[in-house]
Amino acid sequence: MSTVWKQGMMLGAVAVLISGCITHEETVYKDVERAKVEFESDGAGRVFYEAMNKDVAKRRKRETTTRVDIPIVFDHKRKVVVGESVFFNESVSHCDTNRDGRITEMEARIYAEQVERK
């Protein structure tokens, strides 16, 4: 084989690699059904929701991104965004300490204090 032919093949291979890139980008929204919960009083509900909103604001960065890169040839990016119901259910789980599906004013206040300390 001639040197010119080898150089031509090399240039052709480089051109194919540079011009072709497999790219995949995906966003997944992760959400669940909200937990069923009742509140002992309007005050318990107000305290719970105020504390939950503060807690969610602190934890809002629950978005994850995974990226796999092989330069020039392959690029894969997957982003997972957590929905509001996930935060709500986690907050209910932390607050409803006796797991009876009913949040008392005492439970709500304890949860609010825990959120303040975070």
Q: In terms of structural class, how would the helical and strand content be classed?
A: alpha/beta
Instruction: Please indicate the count of domains.
Output: 1
**Uncertain regions: pLDDT < 50 for 5+ in a row?**
none
| Helical proportion, percent range | 40-55%
The end-to-end distance, rounded to whole angstroms, is 71 Å
Helix count from the secondary structure assignment: 4
Indicate the proportion of strand residues: 15-25%
Q: Could you tell me the mean pLDDT?
A: 83
User: What letter string, H or E per element, gives the SSE order?
Assistant: HEEHEEHEH
Biggest pleated-sheet summary: 3 strands, mixed
Radius of gyration, taken over Cα atoms and rounded to an integer in Å:
26 Å
Please give the number of β-strands.
5
Strand arrangement in the largest pleated sheet? 1-4-3
Which geometry do the CA atoms define?
rod-shaped
Give the oligomeric state of the chains in this entry, treating copies of one chain as homo and distinct chains as hetero. single chain
What does this structure look like?
The protein has helices spanning 3-19, 42-59, 84-95, 105-117, and strands at residues 22-30, 38-39, 64-70, 74-82, 102-103. The mean pLDDT is 83. It starts with a helix and ends with a helix. It is built from four helices and five strands, in the order H-E-E-H-E-E-H-E-H. Helix 2 (42-59) packs parallel to helix 4. It has one domain. It is α/β, with parallel strands linked by helices and 118 residues long. It has a three-stranded mixed β-sheet with strand order 1-4-3. A two-stranded parallel ribbon has the order 2-5.
